[in-house]
């Protein structure tokens, strides 16, 4: 009945409904957002503070860095 109103056959009606449903989902939320745990947030803020204080080391060669650990 829905497709008949627009003169659509069954396959065209199904494609239309699926495309509209997909469009609504994409408009609603393009990417998921997850809440960061308190521990992870605390560690991240501590890491930013240490970086600002110059306590971090720039790594240009990853293999060499891990060999020196």
User: What is the count of structural domains?
Assistant: 1
Taken as a percent bin, the fraction of beta residues is under 5%
Question: Average pLDDT, to the nearest integer?
Answer: 87
Terminal Cα separation, in Å? 70 Å
Structural class: mainly alpha
Give unreliable regions as ranges. none
Number of helices: 4
Number of beta-strand segments? 0
Helices and strands, in order, run as HHHH
Integer-rounded radius of gyration: 26 Å
Oligomer designation: single chain
Largest sheet: none
The percent range for helix content is 55-70%
Query: What general outline do the C-alpha atoms trace?
Result: elongated
Secondary-structure topology with pairs:
Layout: H1 2-6, H2 10-28, H3 38-52, H4 62-67
Structure, briefly:
With 69 residues, the protein is mostly helical. The protein has four helices and no strands. The chain has one domain (2-30, 37-67).
Report on the architecture of this protein.
The chain contains four helices and no strands. The protein is mostly helical and 69 residues long. It has one domain (2-30, 37-67). The model has no long low-confidence stretch (mean pLDDT 87).
Characteristics of this structure?
single chain; 69 residues; mainly alpha; elongated
